[in-house]
Design a protein that fits this description.
Helix 1 packs across helix 7. A 5-stranded parallel sheet has the order 2-1-3-4-5, with helices on both faces. The protein is of the alpha/beta class. It has 9 helices and 5 strands. The protein binds flavin mononucleotide. The site of flavin mononucleotide has 17 residues, from helix 1 and strand 4.
Length: 218
């Protein structure tokens, strides 16, 4: 089982969000897990320029930075933990940059076999909107959301336990290929939406159109 932790706090190892994410990882303790952490602040990341290159030619990008390699790691993972501090009631700009640069995942349903969890920390503990947004992104990329954990810093024992339990649950979701019917309905509706878009834009985005054809989805 391959796991990827994407952590967007500039505080790296000292980050409350990352400490909580590590507890989620600890919940996988019984499994043969290979895991990798990406601290986004160590990478060169730029903002999407809406050139649509990645739709014309799959995952090709006109911006020469570290994002394409991060996206490839996301594709290779069975499970992803998205850990972001709450910055003005949202994920950090660095995490959003990754989301924006991954719209090919959305068009081509590329995270469909994956389970993803969200981890957020803040000064207030008012993190519902942030976790809801992470879940929205996850389902929009066709992945299933195993759950989320948030905490008001500093982290309490109760939150450590909650994060650990989330890790245990996520590891079972991956092993048993859990299906969450409500999320699958949302994912199915989005697939219909993107089918129409891909058909309408087939001349503009030939490789994404080909991808849908190869999958037998058209
Ligand atoms: C730019 C910025 C914006 C923030 N906005 C909020 C906010 O809207 N609500 C909140 O409760 N805390 C906010 N905080 C506090 C952080 O979310 C909090 O300190 C968090 O635990 C930091 O996580 P870290 O230790 O993983 O970096 C903000 C902090 C920064 C630097």
């Amino acid at each position: 089982m391959r796991l990827l932790v994407i952590s967007s706090s500039p505080n790296k190892e000292k980050s409350s969000t990352f400490v909580l994410a590590k507890e989620v990882l600890r919940g996988f303790s019984d499994e043969a897990v290979e895991w990798e952490t990406i601290h986004l602040c160590d990478f060169k990341l730029n903002f999407c320029r809406h050139c649509e290159e990645c739709h014309k030619k799959i995952l090709d990008c006109s911006i020469k930075d570290n994002v394409p390699e991060i996206l490839k790691k996301m594709l290779a993972a069975d499970g992803i933990i998205l850990a972001s501090p709450n910055y003005i009631n949202q994920i950090t700009a660095s995490m959003k940059a990754i989301f924006d640069r991954s719209t090919h995942f959305i068009h081509c349903r590329r995270l469909s076999d994956k389970y993803i969890a969200g981890v957020v920390s803040s000064g207030s503990g008012e993190d519902k909107d942030v976790l809801d947004y992470i879940k929205y992104y996850v389902n929009t990329c066709a992945a299933q959301y195993s759950g989320g954990v948030f905490c008001k810093a500093p982290i309490t024992r109760e939150k450590i336990d909650e994060a650990y339990q989330l890790g245990k649950k996520m590891s079972l979701d991956i092993k048993e290929k859990s299906v969450f019917p409500e999320q699958m309905r949302v994912i199915g509706d989005k697939k219909e939406h993107f089918k129409k878009l891909i058909e309408r834009r087939k001349e503009d985005w030939p490789e994404e159109y080909q991808y849908w054809q190869d999958k037998g989805w058209l």
